[in-house]
Design goal:
single chain; mainly alpha; two-stranded parallel sheet; 23 helices; 7 strands; globular
Length: 586
Amino acid sequence: MREKGITLWVNGKRSNCFIAFIITLIASCIIFFIWRPIYYINDDWIIRDILSGRYSGVPDAHIYNLIYPFSWGLMKLYQIFLHCDIWGGYLCGMMLVCFFLILWRTFELFPQYKLISTICISLIYVTVSLYGIIFFTFTITGAMCGITALFWIVTEQKTSKVSENIIPFILLVLSFCTRKDTFLMCIPFIVVWWGVNVIKEKSWKYTYQIGFKILFLAISIFLLYGIHIYNYKSDTEWKDFLEFRSLRKAVHDYDGYPSWDSSCDFYESIGISYEEYDVFKSGSVNTAFDFSQDIRTILSKVAEYNRQNKSVLSLKEQLKNGFLMALKRVFMEEELFKYLSIFMGITFVMLLIRYKNSYIAVAGGIEILVFFTELAYLGYKGRFTKVVINMLVALLVYFILALDMLLIRSKQQGRQVHIAISEKGTRLSAIFITVSICCLLQLSNKSVMAINAAARDKENNVIIREMIDEYCVTHSDSHFFEPAISISGATYELKSLDKRFNNLIVLGGWNFSSPEYEQIMHEFGIKNSSEIEAAIINRDNIFIISNEYLIEVIKQYFKWKYGDILRCRIVDNIEYINVYSFTLDN
């Protein structure tokens, strides 16, 4: 009797959440025992520094990439928990929360198959999302929140439980507040899924429920975004920065700078030399120098030039070119995506053949079209970084996984699918499950190998970053700039904030010319960011910290502008990172 009672509890609904939590806790201990979570790129640790006050000495919630009410809440948490890395904890922690929610939902669907569910979900998560736990960025975390919301919505249980509505809602709001671009990529999938369900159900009550969900979500998002925009536009300085960011984003983040070889006449017509072009398009310093033309003028004219070139082609041709480029990047260059998409696609087709369900087949087909439409749009816009590709991989894989679960559940209404020897098709199912797990094991192994290789590099980069920080603290009477793409990837690990310094700042970067940036310039003794170049050359206490590769672009630019009277010398070194001084001969 006792054994039967334990079995009932393990398979019962009340235990699903608890068991999923315990498994997540164990998985977290294993992950953090093997790897140290660290920041992937400089964007995120600059966000942390601004929110915590480590950047300028005063905590600030003005983070262009985050929605203001959300960043304000994070800032307040930093003020309460003075030495805790709230932002890094959120980025890393939400990835684990999403793993827990996907596992919990799977247990709700298949309470009697917790072991096989745990194995499959864990392997898929290791393959697709483990990288985002260890090397966290706000883009991946924002995307994972939206993907998990989609997973819950697709596998929605028609009950009156509050969790069915509140959990996806919270996840979508967090996705929007963390990275609105990835939120917008998830929304078409959700809207299409709800639309297909409305057509299938043909129920006014269900239509009303879906309509209310969409309306409530839309009002919440517009309210949050309204507060965000008002906060920036009500202040003249922040409004000016917002306009500058829009210009820079249109060129640097999306369409890009036309190559010099194909557009040298254009650049020369607006008074830009190759050396200047090489600097502002490189991403290493972006917009921080005193070019022949005002940087806003340059960005405006480049954006106009890009629009004119695109307008030569029809919209159909533009989308076609973008789609072909996206397919090439994803299916030819991303080996992991190719294997995963094939594996998950075969999974879906085999289950569809066995558990016929035209409604799910149609819905899945439309969603796949949505996926390829987004691919075409991203290719057309030119915004196709590795992080975005990883987000699309996860989006497709978790969506097809959710469809697979629906297909298995739909075999017989109200009856669980039992794998028994006497059941028709059991051998095929057993073979298929075995092969699927073997494929996932292989893919997971590749993922772990890639993570191990990246972790070894990042370990060294964390050490270098700590040494650079220590150097800057020791030389507190000097001021230092570093290239915007970070010093050879040198980054921070997730740990307590035990010290504060502000004599090292990125040269350029996403918050360049913001009031925060200008405040730091004042502390550097520079009136405003337009005088950075002159200060680097004329002041004897301002230096650039960089590796040899990144400094070459800056040296070539200065050499072109100032000629033989320019002197560049290495005044110190931190391992393979050098401290450079630029001066002019009198």
